[in-house]
């Protein structure tokens, strides 16, 4: 066996094995965390109302969805118009 081949088995093979085992372990840990997060996000109809409120409160806030919900809540969508909000004289952005 050549000197380079012996060097690969001495240093390279353990490094490659460590990378493979580390990647496998990391995938398992991250996958478990994602499963737990997904399970917490699901709403169980049998869960107490307090638990459901906590889960909904933990959900991420989507500003665009909230804006659409507010617009849709109005009687007539065409009645909605964007208007400038009055600001005091010293306010910025005027």
From TrEMBL:
InterPro entries: Cyt_c_Oxase_assmbl_COX16
Swiss-Prot/TrEMBL keywords: Membrane, Mitochondrion, Mitochondrion inner membrane, Transmembrane, Transmembrane helix
Entry GO CC: mitochondrial inner membrane
Principal location listed in the UniProt entry: mitochondrion
Membrane topology of this protein: Single-pass membrane protein
Compartment(s): Mitochondrion inner membrane
Highest taxon above the source species: Eukaryota
Entry's family note: Belongs to the COX16 family.
Protein's name according to its UniProt entry: Uncharacterized protein
Protein's organism: Ostreococcus lucimarinus (strain CCE9901)
């Amino acid at each position: 066996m050549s000197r380079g081949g012996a060097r690969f088995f001495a240093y390279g093979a353990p490094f490659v094995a460590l990378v493979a085992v580390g990647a496998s372990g990391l995938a398992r840990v991250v996958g478990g965390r994602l499963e737990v997060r997904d399970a917490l996000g699901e709403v169980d109809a049998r869960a107490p109302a307090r638990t459901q409120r906590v889960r909904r409160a933990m959900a991420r806030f989507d500003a665009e969805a909230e804006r659409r919900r507010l617009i849709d809540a109005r009687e007539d969508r065409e009645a909605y118009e964007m208007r400038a909000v009055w600001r005091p004289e010293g306010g910025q952005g005027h």
